[in-house]
Design a protein that fits this description.
The complex is a heterodimer of chains A (about 475) and B (about 425).
Chain A lengths: L5 H10 L12 E3 L6 H10 L4 H15 L23 E3 L13 H10 L3 H6 L4 E6 L2 E5 L2 H7 L2 E4 H7 L1 H7 L10 H9 L4 E5 L9 E6 L10 E6 L4 E9 L7 E3 L2 E6 L4 E9 L11 E11 L4 E8 L4 E4 L2 E4 L5 E10 L4 E4 L2 E4 L5 E10 L4 E10 L7 E10 L5 E10 L5 E10 L2 H9 L4 H17 L4 H14 L6
Parallel strand pairs in A: 3-7, 6-8, 7-9, 8-11, 9-12, 10-13, 11-13, 12-14, 13-15, 13-16, 14-17, 15-18, 16-19, 17-20, 18-21, 19-21, 20-22, 21-23, 22-24
Antiparallel strand pairs in A: 1-2, 3-4, 5-6
Chain B lengths: L2 H15 L4 H17 L15 H4 L15 H4 L10 E6 L2 E2 L12 E4 H6 L4 H7 L8 H8 L5 E5 L9 E7 L6 E3 L2 E6 L4 E10 L5 E11 L4 E9 L4 E11 L4 E10 L2 E10 L5 E10 L4 E10 L5 E10 L4 E10 L7 E10 L5 E10 L5 E9 L3 H9 L4 H17 L5 H14 L9
Parallel strand pairs in B: 1-5, 4-7, 5-8, 6-9, 7-9, 8-10, 9-11, 10-12, 11-13, 12-14, 13-15, 14-16, 15-17, 16-18, 17-19, 18-20
Antiparallel strand pairs in B: 1-2, 3-4
The chains are: A alpha/beta (about 475), B alpha/beta (about 425).
Chain lengths: ~475, ~425
């Protein structure tokens, strides 16, 4: 057998097809293309929403109309035609199922292929799934267990009907409708998403997880997630995504809002593996996501993300450290290959006293991809004793890809302690040589090094998810991860 | 009439006044068009996100000095590094002052830009180098459009300039507000070596805005040491655009000492156009009052096997603000690049602010690039230790701050400059310590 080198790996990466590219044919209830006030009203009507929600959407739409797409990100792509997208699509086999047997078997097969069969998930360490296929939630499990604790975990459209007071109070408080172009668009047309409320002092006994899938041709998916952790509560929330392969660019503009009240803790983990486009850079998902969390006193929000998919990623999970002693964390692995482009990072806004934030970002670029870290650490003048540590490491494979770092650091308080470090390197020949010398072949060696490189972040993932994350890293860097 | 209109409309009058050959004329006409189109930069531009020129541009600047002013050497002696022998090119309100200066044509050319632009014997050099390194941004273009005077330094092959060259721009404040636009051209040929010290000094409280542009060409194995001393009055603002093009195996270093001025913006750009080049960018910034200093650096690694080292230290007191925006670009071909960047800051006052953005853009895989950036405070235990040994708090703080910036000072090659900087630092920190013990 010839020696496996980095070139072979690169070659393999180039030819590696997206494994999860398949398409389930479920009869869909789809709106005509385009967006205007009537469509917004129709979406709201379709979802049987109250008047205040319709007004809220319309307000967002009016703001969006006058906004322009942001261009500051280090990504280049053909802008989506926002009038060429259908803004609503829901699987037809309604109403809801009481048991898993009633679910469209084709849909179940889809999950099977993804390796996330509900049965298996049910058994697995008590993971409750709110499965989203093309916008409408079709299965919710473990609801009863959660219900006993007073935890509300349901789709956001249900929550609007059943818990309007909570939704009304918190929706749009962290990411306002006019926050940015994509957030405004999402606010106007979001079709579904998850809602989670953890009551005071409750520790959520299981990891909550949702799966987002993009399934129907030409429909953008606009998810809205709202997680509220009341005083002294704890929740770990998982989000994972895979999407079928297709040529047309698909738009995804999700908004995630986290609210951690006093002494609460939210852990939010994402594995994102949407279709990245083929080796020529054709197709792939556009992922423009706004994620932000608000920390009250002594609260903690931790973002962990593994980004391996999407043609274009534009994503900055942020923490507003409003309360004193609050903590924000951001752990990220972003892998780009072929023509993928990722501009991702975080914002840590220190407002309260004694606030702390940690940023660990690992970028791996291969092929002709561009991988950027863009982060902001801001310490306001009243944020005494703020502390930040940031580390951004990039690993380059081949000389046709690029790694970029754009850290913004703004300090207005003299007691702030901020550290930022960034390095860029490739897999060292000496490292591989060392491994070879000890009887580890080159393929294994590369796997070992990449694994080690991302370990800090992988370690932060919940156990159930770490398996999945490994799987996704494998797809993106097949051959390098053993 | 705002400043932009005033400048654009006075361009024609200016062009008529100076008799120039067609080459420079074309360059200038082109430049004024660029400026007219772009105007002054606003905060909306990414590169000017943290620095606003609005306030400064409101002054009614006189664009051309009306009269020639003279100064006595004894009055301004303190602004010179007077304890070393040096060549001097001195300008007063933008006009050359022959009695304060000491130029030469003996082996090397240390003279005036106006001479280089007008005399036929320099024609080739001007056509080869003038405006060949400067970028086409609006402020550089503005300088290019009005370029007529400044320092011209040419060191031929295999020559070592026998003494350092001081370039000092004084403004007398005889006009209520003046705009100065010096233009310098420095060409250092193969195997040659030069040391340059640059300073801008306002002598009164009348506002001065200096939009200076310096082009440096370092040829094969040339060594260029450039020291910028920025310790001006609170009415003086400086926009300093420096462009350095390096050829293979050359070493260029720029030390920027920013201690005062209303607003200072340093646009420092290095372009590495050969292999095994070393670029060194160092800076100490110590600010108080409402001073604002913005370091905007670019190192463009184009060829393989090159290095760059950046080290900027900042201490910010009172209401001062500091900006550091360092950009390193490593092109695909620039394998084996070793780029290092570090920016350390101390905030001494609650009202001071620092914005820093160390930026890496890397397209080559076999490189070592790192940047580090910190914002922090003086070590309490070190302060306590010194106080317990009888050093008053103020002095102890000053010592720590000096130690903090010493890394940058240690690479200064002219001891007299180091001593001078030490004195300025002591002065700035309000202590009477000779740091050169």
């Amino acid at each position: 057998m010839s020696k496996y080198t980095e070139d072979d790996l690169r070659e393999e990466l180039k030819t590696k097809e997206y494994e999860y590219g398949f398409y389930t044919d479920i009869e869909s209830d789809t709106f005509p293309n385009g967006l205007n006030e009537d469509i917004v009203r129709a979406i709201s009507q379709k979802k049987e929403e109250p008047q205040w929600m319709t007004d809220w959407r319309l307000e967002a739409f009016r703001v969006w109309k006058d906004m322009v797409e942001p261009e500051w990100a280090n990504v280049h792509y053909e802008k989506p035609d926002f009038q060429g997208i259908s803004y609503y699509s829901a699987p037809n086999s309604k109403p809801k199922y009481d048991s898993i047997d009633e679910v469209d078997p084709e849909l179940l097969a889809t999950f099977e292929k993804l390796g996330i069969s509900l049965d298996e998930q049910k058994k697995l360490a008590g993971v409750a799934m709110d499965v989203v296929v093309d916008s409408v939630s079709v299965a919710t499990t473990f609801k009863k267990t959660l219900g006993e604790k007073g935890i509300i975990f349901m789709s956001i459209s249900e929550a609007i009907k059943e818990h309007p007071e909570l939704v009304k109070k918190y929706l749009g408080t962290v990411v306002p409708q006019k926050d940015n172009f994509y957030a405004a668009l999402n606010s106007a047309v979001f079709s579904d998403g998850s809602f989670c409320y953890i009551p005071k002092g409750v520790k959520c006994p299981m990891e909550l997880s949702t799966y987002f899938r993009i399934n129907q041709a030409g429909t953008g998916q606009f998810e809205r997630t709202l997680v509220i952790a009341d005083e002294g509560s704890y929740v770990s929330y998982l989000e994972g995504c895979t999407a079928p392969s297709r040529d047309e660019n698909q738009l995804h503009a999700a908004v995630v809002e986290l609210i951690a009240l006093d002494d609460a803790e939210i852990k939010y983990s994402t594995v994102q593996n949407w279709y990245p486009g083929n080796a020529e850079g054709k197709g792939g998902v556009f992922n423009f996501v706004t994620k932000r969390g608000l920390c009250e006193k002594n609260a903690k929000i931790s973002w962990t993300q593994v980004e391996t998919g999407s043609a274009v990623t534009w994503k900055y999970p942020s923490c507003v450290l409003k309360g004193d002693n609050s903590v924000g964390e951001f752990y990220s692995i972003a892998v780009t290959n072929n023509y993928q482009q990722a501009d991702t990072g975080t914002k840590m806004i220190h407002l309260g006293k004694n606030t702390k934030s940690t940023i660990i970002s690992k970028g791996i670029s291969a092929g002709k991809s561009q991988n950027s870290y863009r982060g902001l650490v801001q310490v306001s003048s009243r944020a005494e004793n703020a502390r930040n540590f940031s580390q951004c490491d990039s690993l380059l494979m081949g000389n046709e890809c690029g790694a970029h770092t754009f850290p913004y650091i703004e300090a207005k308080n003299k007691s702030a302690k901020i550290e930022h470090e960034a390095t860029t390197s490739k897999i060292g020949e000496d490292q591989i040589f060392y491994c070879n010398q000890r009887g580890i072949d080159t393929e294994k060696a590369i796997a070992l090094i990449v694994n080690g490189f991302s370990k800090e972040v992988l370690n932060k993932l919940p156990m159930e998810f770490a398996v999945e994350a490994q799987k996704l890293l494998e797809i993106s860097l097949e051959g390098s991860v053993g | 009439m705002d400043l932009k209109e005033k400048l654009v409309s006075s361009f024609l009058a200016f062009e008529n006044k100076v008799d120039l050959d067609s080459y420079v004329h074309d360059v200038r006409s082109e430049a004024i068009k660029v400026f007219e189109e772009k105007g002054f930069p606003s905060k909306k531009e990414e590169a000017w996100k943290y620095t606003s020129l609005n306030k400064i541009l409101k002054e009614d600047y006189s664009v051309f000095p009306k009269q020639e002013n003279a100064l006595d050497y004894k009055d301004v002696k303190k602004y010179f590094i007077h304890d070393i022998d040096s060549y001097k090119i001195i300008f007063i309100d933008g006009k050359y002052s022959s009695h304060l200066s000491e130029t030469t044509h003996d082996g090397i050319d240390v003279c005036l830009m106006s001479a280089a632009l007008n005399k036929p014997k320099y024609r080739l050099i001007i056509e080869n180098y003038f405006n060949k390194a400067a970028s086409k941004d609006s402020l550089s273009s503005l300088n290019t459009a009005f370029s007529s005077e400044g320092a011209y330094i040419h060191i031929p092959k295999n020559k070592i300039a026998d003494k350092p060259i001081q370039v000092i721009h004084f403004s007398t404040g005889n006009e209520s507000a003046s705009l100065l636009q010096p233009r310098n051209l420095i060409v250092v040929e193969e195997n040659s070596h030069v040391q340059i010290i640059e300073r801008h000094q306002n002598l009164t409280d009348n506002p001065v805005l200096t939009n200076s542009l310096t082009e440096v060409f370092a040829k094969k194995r040339a060594i260029v040491d450039y020291y910028k001393i920025q310790n001006d009055t609170s009415s003086a603002s400086l926009i300093d655009n420096t462009f350095i093009k390096q050829q293979r195996e050359s070493i260029a270093s720029v030390h920027t000492f920013a201690f005062g001025g209303k607003l200072i913006r340093n646009n420092l750009n290095f372009y590495q156009e050969g292999e095994r080049i070393d670029s060194i960018l160092k800076g100490v910034t110590i600010l108080s009052d409402k001073e604002h200093v913005d370091h905007n650096t670019l190192v463009h690694h184009i060829e393989p096997n090159c290095e760059s080292h950046q080290d900027y230290k900042g201490i910010f007191g009172d209401n001062s603000t500091g900006v550091f925006n360092g950009k390193i670009i490593v092109e695909k071909e620039a394998q084996k690049t070793n780029a290092f960047q570090s920016n350390n800051n101390i905030l001494v006052s609650d009202k001071a602010a620092i914005n820093t953005k160390p930026q890496l853009e890397i397209f080559a895989d076999d490189v070592k690039c790192s940047h580090g950036c910190t914002i922090g405070q003086l070590d309490e235990s070190a302060l306590f230790y010194m106080q317990s040994r009888g050093i008053p708090k103020k002095e102890a703080k000053a010592l720590l701050m000096y130690a903090f910036s010493n890394n940058v000072l240690s690479s200064v090659k002219i001891p007299e400059i180091k001593q001078r900087i030490n004195k300025i630092i002591a002065n700035k920190l309000g202590v009477d310590i000779g740091f050169d013990l």
